[in-house]
Amino acid sequence: MKSVSFINFIRNSVEDDYTLNVFYNIVKDSFVKNGFSLSNVSSVYIDGRFFGEVTNVSLQAKGNKTPKHVLALLLSIRLLMLNPKLVKFCNDDNLIITSRIEESFRWVEFMAFILDNWEDEEIKMLYSMLENYHFDEEFTEEEKKEFQKSIVIPEYRNEKAYYKTLAKSTSTVTNSVIGDCAFLEAGIDKYVVTKDIEYVGDTAFSYCEKLETLVFEGKVLFGLFPIIECLRLCQIIVPKELIDYYKKELPYYKNIITDEGKTIKKSEKEPVKHVSLDMTSDDSIQKTDIVDITIQKKPAKTTKQIDTKTLDKIFDKKATSYKYFWFLAIISLAKEKNSLKVAYEDILVRMAALAWPIIFDSEIALGKPDMLPKYLVDITKKTTLIKNASSNIVENYLRQHFTSQGIDKILDPLLKNVPYRFLSPWIPFTTNEEVIQKSNSIEFACPYALGSKGVLFDEDWWDYIMEHYSDIIKFTEDSFIAYVKQFNDGLKLLKFQTSGFNLIDKK
Q: Thinking of the domain 159-280, which architecture would CATH place it in?
């Protein structure tokens, strides 16, 4: 759980419309629930599903809990929502714009800001309540109803991130989460996911050789690859009103998804021939050209030796530098996480972090068609990141602010072509959709399979890459140098190579 002082929360969130809006409405909601007073409230609790983690904003400062002070506080937050530049007036933990409202309240301290924003209905309502309470020390029933009606708490933005964090912390079943790998190789033939479960983690049902029936009593969110190699699974029973939802979330299993009132005939109970590693869709992926087609196989140990010589061809066809940073990102993340699965968001962040010093700290040109320099410059314009920041600082910052500061929108174009074209040595490119389907087939023996939220490495390829990791990194760096030779003179290249150049840690 994250704890933060009120004033620091405001300063850190002033450029984030969503976060300020959440806080503003939760303070309003707390005010109502505590009888239009926060005199006994020490902090405001913010559900972790809003920001990805539980947050407590301290209200310990003196003098900001009476109805009058709370209304002035809300006025201040609302004014900041309308004009973030007013944050320069934040100098006190009691209120944002004025230092403190004494008993002899002076309207002039607020009036200039209020009059400049008088067209805002929230400003009018709060000011009217504050003025009336100042003289009468009570609210009318009409004011209470109007205020309560004005509370509109935004939808959860990082609900899945919150549950994903919970799922990682347990390998079992909690009150609301089925953890990652919770039923790895479990000997169950039927399992009921009860109504209180909100989230089913990564590879939650994996290698359950006897599992035939899954029952979902309510609506759940899914992590990456919730079902793997459950070869006997022949029916998924869900509430009738949620059939469409589950068919969308688990599209490969749509033929065995049924409502509680239907019994599948024995002739229909044929095990799924290619077991899905389903990836659920979300907004960040829908913004790209990644198609929501689920992985139809687990990249299990193959019956024939993988063709490692094909790796020599991965950089044969390239118009930009993207393939180099893509490959380094996916293999370094797989190694770092010791995991076959790597999410697209993590890949984009790692690509940007790896490219950052190349683009800003060197004189190396990447060629006119290459848009990476533009994307990173756009990031500097939208964030507080400086150009000489280290890769680690860049990665940590981008990971924390990926959606809140629009970084996802800037980097999304990197997913339009490279995940598919990179597989050209194994799958001659036709369309993105066809590459996705073929990448999930053992026949093509690709290093990874493509899904809607990330990639999943073939186990044989993963073992090979991890065993020869440093050599593969060296091969990629040498290929990168050969690629940029066409855009840079010999002196620049020599300076670049003798400056301690390396794209990533080879260890």
A: 3-Layer(aba) Sandwich (3.40)
